[in-house]
Design a protein that fits this description.
Blueprint (H helix, E strand, L loop, with lengths): L1 H7 L7 H11 L19 E2 L1 H5 L14 E3 L7 E5 L8 E4 L13 E2 L6 H11 L5 H7 L49 H5 L1
Antiparallel strand pairs: 1-5, 2-3, 3-4
């Protein structure tokens, strides 16, 4: 419903605030939530969960085969796995390595933001299509120097061989005597036998 309300109106979408306000008034079950603001400030931080968990846990071998998993608070770090619900036996996997402190927390990953090339693209190519009120929000003048444009040259994996003259045509030869000028049906050696 929010998509219909947002995109069926004659008004265009140019800012995140417009999407949030349209969505909040248009739907009760779909609520948009920004994870960052227009100025680049983080509202919902992103954490380095992979870098945090890899030293403390083992990989679960055969996880794609398992369809039923069970964990219990009395055995932290242990996962019980079955391939089918009707299997009688569960396979126990100990995932937790020694030395894990549950009070630790992963590091926050700071977003990189838009590259200089993308910022300048938005400013140079897209800004003209935005209404005046949204130009400085959606496509502001970048604070980074404009990157120099370099022509992208695609290099083939195996460069073609360059020859000055075209390859000579292969001459046809007889299937019986391997001599040029005739075929097996008109071969002189076949006719003489």
């Amino acid at each position: 419903m929010s998509k219909q309300k947002c995109f069926s109106s004659s008004e265009s979408v140019h800012t995140f605030d417009y999407i949030i306000n349209t969505n909040l008034h248009g739907s009760r079950c779909n609520t948009a939530q920004l994870v960052a603001d227009q100025d680049g400030g983080t509202i919902v931080p992103t954490y380095d969960w992979i870098g945090f968990l890899v030293p403390h846990f083992r990989k679960l071998i055969g996880i794609k085969k398992g369809h039923h998993f069970r964990v219990h608070s009395s055995q932290p770090g242990v996962v019980f796995m079955k391939q089918r619900a009707d299997e009688a036996t569960e396979v126990e996997h100990s995932l937790l390595k020694e030395g894990f402190d549950p009070g630790e927390f992963p590091e926050i990953i700071e977003p990189d933001g838009l590259s200089a090339q993308r910022q300048w693209y938005l400013h140079d190519k897209i800004r003209e299509f935005c209404p005046d009120a949204a130009k400085d929000l959606t496509c502001p003048l970048p604070m980074v120097p404009k990157p120099t444009s370099r022509a992208v040259t695609l290099v083939p994996l195996s460069p073609p061989s360059v020859s000055s003259s075209p390859a000579p045509k292969r001459k046809r030869v007889c299937g019986s005597c391997k001599e040029p000028g005739h075929n097996t049906r008109t071969c002189p050696t076949q006719m003489s036998t």
